[in-house]
Amino acid sequence: MESIVSPIVELVKLISSPIAQCWRYHIGLEENLRKLDERLEDLNCQNRAIASRLETEHILGATILNQEVERWLKKVEKVTDGKIGTVKQKAQNVGFFTRACIGKEVIQVIEEMQQLYREGHKLPVDLIISLPKKNGEILLTTTFGEETTPEKKIVEIWACLMDGEERKIGVYGMGGIGKTTVMKHINNQLLQKGKEKFDDVIWVTVSKASSVFQLQYAIACEINLDLSRSDDETKRASKLYAELIKKGTYVLILDDLWDVCCFEEVGIPEPSAQNGCKLVLTTRLLSVCLGMSCKAIQMERLSDKEALDLFMDTVGSDILSIPNLEETMKLVVKECANLPLAIVTIAGSLKGIDDSNVWKTALEDLGASAKGTNQIFEKLKFSYDRLNDKNLQNCLLCCALYPEDYEIELDLLIEYLIAEEIIKGRNRQAELERGKAMLKKLVNACLLEDTTTRYGQECVKMHDLIRDMAIQITSDSPRFLIEAGVGLKFIPEEDNWKEDLEKVSLMRNDILDIPLSFGSPNCPRLSTLLLSANHHLSSISNNFFLLMKGLNLLDLSKTSIENLPESISSLASLITLLLRKCKKLKYVPSLAKLTALKKLDFYESGIKEVPQGMEKLVKLRYLDLDKCKLEMIPDGILCQLSNLRSLSLNQECGTKIRGEELIHLRKLEILSGVLYDHNSFNAYVRSLKAGGPTYYILQLGFTDGIMWSAVRKWAKVVYLVNFNIPESVVAAGDCPLLLPKDVEILAIKRCRMNISSLSKLRSIINATNLKCCYIKYCGEIEYLFSYSSTIPHLLQTLEVLDLEAVWDLRGLTREEKLGLPSVPRPPDIFSSLRKVRIGLCNNIRRLFRNASPLPNLEDLIIFECDQLIEIISTTSDYHEGGGIPNNDIVVVDVALPKLSNLHLIALPKLKSIPVIADSLQQIIVRECPNLERIPPLDRESYPPSLQCVYIGHDLWESLEWDHPNTKAAIQAMRVQ
């Protein structure tokens, strides 16, 4: 009875659905089961690739930083091992009445797999795993001679840390006296000499305006703890406390603390003899040291000799060769009051000046500056005045708009300076180069500091005294209002918005809104308004901008604003409007009157429609609509923006552009976007014969959620993703896709090309600068290139080759006969290759021939290629066209002079590794049961550069060695 009732119940459940939908589930079952198998294959490939990466990194001692990857792997296992089997079993026994029910279930599983596949692409692949965190980070700093004042302080602090009973140490002294520099030396010494006593060294820079919340965030960032999901300080403190306890014994360095803080409120375990931890803080105030029960150590000024030596080190010893200058120089040093920061800054401003008269004038100016109310600021201002370049001075003042101790990303800062028209150039590239040159001058003048974030991003940083000096300059003329990163919850009172105000920075605060009651500040001279990174800012009064007629730059990036105020439409002088990552943005008023606008940035914003009047922005040079929710760009808009230099469009979903419109944009230097179809793509490529963008990403098809890491911004890229070349086009004999002659990167992902070789594109023959080729999840391609006398130059430029899940791939190259005599293969066909990565290609048997030298190969990574027999073929009669190779393989070792990394994983038929590499640093070989020897290691002396060896236990035991002593030596360094 139950077997009859159950289908009826299921059918009743479906009655509420439209009948047509039920019928589609019913009749589409077979087709959907086929799709189910396809999606399963895709997901399994992705799963194997990620799992393989995890396992390889674990071999090298890596650890998972977050649980996101583990959760994803478990979800995949649940679907592939459970749900799919269940639904397939049901489909085998399906009856007429249950067919629609099962059909619906199949669709749901397909959708779940597709969602998992998208999530897999969004996994932070570069952050999934990392090598074990070092117990701190070496910091760049200057060197001291022995018996100098700073060195004596270093010795005193070191003794307290290593031998003394003190658990908390406070280093105090006036600004610019060298507290931070001394502590950088202590940090580095702890990492080099203190490993036995301390497990970790944690350096935290504290800004003047830091609250408990901000201090928690700063410490959490240094120990890779995510506190973003918790706004409650007590809960954050508990999490921080628990994470710090896990660190074991550590030294926590709090640099530039301004107020006494409570350890319990922040979440810092009290340093004690039991936990072995110690705290060192630097501060300008003795009261902070005493308030935190620290042993207080006072920093002292340099001696006269030390001051002179530091000045000479900075300005350069060549200065002594200038006649009559030595006495003047000593007087200049004396004016620096023996403060290291003042000495370095003033010496930087005089570096390279060989005219003694200029030095005498500088001395007079320094003497005059001593009459100011704050002598330190006046001395630093001298260096600002010595720049003698208004643009450089304005550049420095713009850096003061950022919060204290902020690492300012070089690229974003240069964009600001371009928007402020401090930097001007004939084109985008010239502007970027000029910006970097200007910032380098300020670094060389010791007014800015070069730094790099933990993610490798180039930055500059301002010493807080230099920033204070810059703010003091801007308090008079030009007038600045700077309240950046100070925790503001409300916009400054109207009294602060004076008529002569020129620049306002309120970035990185907690402002919630600008209410109607605030009114319209009368600031006709205001040129810059920065409200970015006020993440909770959701609304601005409609009239707020009415009286800001001179506004040139408005930054509302990273706010929660939903509707831009109507008064923005009246900003006729506006040159730059930044709305990056305004993810909740829905409404933008008409831009028709903003005819001066040159830069409009909607990157990753929430807009769904092109703002009204955008076609009127004829001066627009920079337009970024990437990763926004824009559904379409009406025809006829882009072609009117003839002055565009940079255009970035949505490459993930929704927005396509016609190549016919792009043809009108002759001034484009940077372009990225999805072309409408292959005809539109080809039309635009044909137009490039007259010249095209300096950098581009020309894409066909939409991505799976994130851009592939291979697709770099500053390159010339063709990216084909989720795109099928119509069979009719290939059958007609037409070139299915044209490639630009200057393309540098060709990336193909999940495409049905309907071609057996990339050479079928024909236009690839003209690509004389191709450096990287990436192909993933593609069938039909049997050979990468068919070579003939016409294309050897193509393969000679190739530097990176990355192939994953190219299922039908049989080889890299094949000779193209064309009914003509056989063309001899060029001997240097892969001579530029630096990196080769090939995986999940189960039809390939051999990669390279012995006749193809690989003089520049550095990384060779091959995994899960079930049929691979040889890496470098040593069979004399081997033919890539499918001929049967001689089974009598003669092994000839091949020299790869630059090979540093060799990873061979899950290659069950691999018989030999005919490679000699004296430069080898890392070798990983596992799941290669047919290997008998490993020539890179089996020599009288293994490569001197070798750092890491991992060979699976079973393979290690079965290997044959000509040199047993080498085996014993390698055993000692082998990762178990």
TrEMBL record:
UniProt GO molecular function: ADP binding; ATP binding
Record keywords: ATP-binding, Coiled coil, Leucine-rich repeat, Nucleotide-binding, Plant defense, Repeat
Superkingdom of the source species: Eukaryota
Pfam family of the protein (one): LRR_8
Disease resistance protein winged helix domain boundaries: 401-470
Biological-process GO terms, alphabetical: defense response
Domain NB-ARC: 151-316
Coiled-coil stretches noted in the UniProt entry, renumbered to this chain: 26-53
Disease resistance protein At4g27190-like leucine-rich repeats domain location: 826-934
Alphabetical list of InterPro entries matching this protein: Apaf_helical, At4g27190-like_LRR, Leu-rich_rpt, Leu-rich_rpt_typical-subtyp, LRR_dom_sf, NB-ARC, P-loop_NTPase, Plant_NBS-LRR
Stated family: Belongs to the disease resistance NB-LRR family.
Protein name: NB-ARC domain containing protein
Organism name: Trema orientale
Lineage of source species: Eukaryota, Viridiplantae, Streptophyta, Embryophyta, Tracheophyta
